[in-house]
Write a structure and sequence with these properties.
Radius of gyration: 19 Å
CATH architecture of the domain at 10-205 and 234-262: 3-Layer(aba) Sandwich
Strand content: 15-25%
CATH topology of the domain at 10-205 and 234-262: Rossmann fold
Number of strands: 15
Shape: globular
Strand order of the largest sheet: 3-2-1-4-5-7-12
Largest sheet: 7 strands, parallel
């Protein structure tokens, strides 16, 4: 993968986000059957679908890659189709519509609800716990890679982050619903014999979305940065997609959990100071760093798949240039600074 000094256009960005690693090409070359991505219309789904299409083509694998979503954006759906990904509009909570989806030996589950959960908790629980039960029963003859999140609660920063064998300790109702999602998948994996991996993703980033962009925009706007949540793990979204797709080689019953993030423990204050220098704007702060944060250690994923191709410093350079030039944003803050689990 050749990394440019800057990213000039959305088209160039999308090309980088969907470029498969050699490992993904090898995995999808070995994998038999079609691939369906549920919840494909979100922030990460379109580029993951494109990566699966590109890797399958590079490996000479004849398969359908199908993205399923309500697709609130016609433009996103049209671009996916132009890139060779089949699309199906579907409300996954509609059991009849779910039943009508085509069979696929390989399923990537990306559906879920986070933002907007506060005040509409029942829908959050329906999406995060009821829907996995419907999907597991519908695709009981498939392999499933299911996206999850870091469920370990607040852990001391000086310990570097919990590993997959550490017990879940979710903070707040949203994270508890995500633990419910994992438990439902674990249950049906055991009762129906479905091989799965659970991708505990912590803060995927690209130029239009992510923790790093949130910090950069605050520096650019002269807004104060709350550093109480003083540390985070982050990863380039393309690298997170690659690890998730490569994890089809590691599906198991019971499901195998994999922390997916970058190797560096990022200081929010230091990131803001880097953006301050690059953007030539002052960084201002409120609060003090807490001794704990929502973290996860992805050493296992790095041993299995290799280190991310894009470093934190490279992301910061790209994002600073993008923000200075007024590049597009998805307009979806991560709310990484929230410490009560209410989104």
């Amino acid at each position: 993968m050749s990394l440019p000094d800057s990213i000039q256009t959305v088209a160039q960005l999308e090309d980088l986000l969907s470029e498969p690693t050699a490992g993904v090409v090898e995995t999808l070359g070995r994998l038999e059957g079609d691939l369906i991505v549920l919840g494909a219309g979100g922030k990460m789904g379109p580029s993951l679908c494109r990566m699966a299409r590109r890797a399958s083509d590079a490996a000479g694998a004849q398969r359908r890659v199908i993205g399923v979503s309500r697709f609130s954006s016609d433009q996103v759906e049209a671009q996916m189709r132009a890139d060779g990904v089949e699309t199906i509009q579907c409300d996954l909570l509609n059991a009849d519509a779910l039943a009508a989806l085509p069979e696929a030996t390989n399923v990537v589950y990306m559906a879920g609800r986070k933002f907007g959960s506060k005040g509409n908790e029942p829908l959050t629980w329906a999406m995060n716990t009821h829907l996995p039960a419907l999907v597991a029963q519908r695709f009981r003859r498939s392999r499933i890679v299911a996206f999850s999140t870091a469920l370990y609660g607040f852990t001391p920063v000086n310990l570097g982050g919990p590993v997959e064998t550490d017990p879940p300790n979710p903070a707040g109702e949203y994270y508890n619903s995500c633990l419910g999602r994992e438990r439902i998948f674990q249950h049906f994996s055991g009762t129906l014999g479905i091989p799965m991996t659970l991708i505990r993703l912590s803060y995927a980033n690209e130029l239009r979305y992510g923790v790093l962009l949130d910090v950069a925009k605050k520096v650019w706007a002269g807004a104060s940065i709350d550093v109480a949540m003083g540390h985070a793990h982050v990863i380039w979204q393309g690298d997170a997609s690659a690890m998730a797709l490569a994890s089809f080689d590691h599906v198991a019953d019971p499901p195998r959990a994999l922390n997916v993030t970058g190797p560096d423990l990022v200081s929010i204050r230091e990131v803001a100071e880097q953006f301050s220098r690059l953007l030539d704007r002052p960084a201002t702060f409120t609060g003090e760093e807490a001794p704990d944060a929502l973290l996860c250690n992805a050493a296992l994923a790095h041993r299995l798949f290799g280190l991310p191709r894009v470093s934190v410093d490279r992301m910061i350079l790209w994002i600073a240039d993008w923000v200075r030039r007024g590049g597009d944003s998805l307009g979806k803050p991560t709310h990484y600074e929230v410490r009560d689990g209410k989104f």
